[in-house]
Structure to design on (217 residues):
């Protein structure tokens, strides 16, 4: 810290720096708590993402098997025709939730309900395997949205964790040491001024005593 950056060595300035140190320590503690909470949330979502991936893989295997069985009962043309006949409107509702200051989208899949009988599709004319395949792929699509939600959450949590860590480190290794050094310098300077003032008073007192003694003579 250069001389031009040296704070005024006054009691008032010392109190101000002590207040800033107390505030910085409080902020440092809160930021560390936030960082730790974000890290816990990060690992929780990582586990959720892993679980969803496992569910998707299992459901996809089941869907592939159902399609294979359906092809044994229907021609490829029939399977494609039934697929086109079952085309339905799908929408995704997006809401934003706040997780410790991190905005994460909440994705919800809305699929138009099927109504029977439909043209080219009926329960009696369609194998159970094909029906199972349709349901499986719908579940896979819903899981894919959940997976996308967790992936976005993971990326944003990583960014927030890194930002919070930088702020914690800045307070811990830059701001607080600087303020504590300023407090130390001011305290030493005030002690020095106090000692100088005490010495000056003693000198003045001795001088006055000598003058008084001379006058009495």
């Amino acid at each position: 810290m250069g001389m031009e950056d040296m704070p005024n060595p006054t009691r008032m300035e010392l109190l101000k720096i002590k207040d800033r140190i107390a505030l910085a320590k409080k902020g440092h503690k809160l930021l560390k708590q936030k960082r730790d909470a974000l890290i816990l949330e990060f690992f929780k979502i990582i586990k959720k993402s892993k679980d969803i991936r496992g569910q998707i893989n299992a459901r996809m295997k089941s869907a592939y098997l159902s399609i294979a069985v359906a092809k044994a009962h229907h021609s490829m043309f029939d399977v494609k025709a039934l697929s086109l006949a079952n085309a339905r409107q799908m929408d995704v509702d997006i809401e934003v939730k706040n997780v410790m200051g991190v905005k994460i989208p909440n994705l919800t899949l809305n699929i138009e309900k099927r109504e029977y009988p439909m043209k080219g599709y009926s329960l009696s004319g369609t194998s159970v395997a094909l029906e199972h395949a349709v349901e499986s792929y719908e579940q896979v699509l819903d899981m894919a949205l959940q997976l996308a939600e967790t992936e976005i959450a993971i990326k944003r949590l990583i960014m927030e964790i890194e930002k919070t860590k930088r702020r914690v480190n800045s307070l811990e290794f830059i701001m607080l040491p600087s303020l504590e050094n300023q407090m130390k310098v001011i305290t030493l300077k005030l002690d020095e001024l106090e000692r100088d003032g005490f010495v000056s008073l003693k000198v003045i007192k001795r001088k006055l005593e000598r003058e008084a003694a001379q006058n009495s003579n």
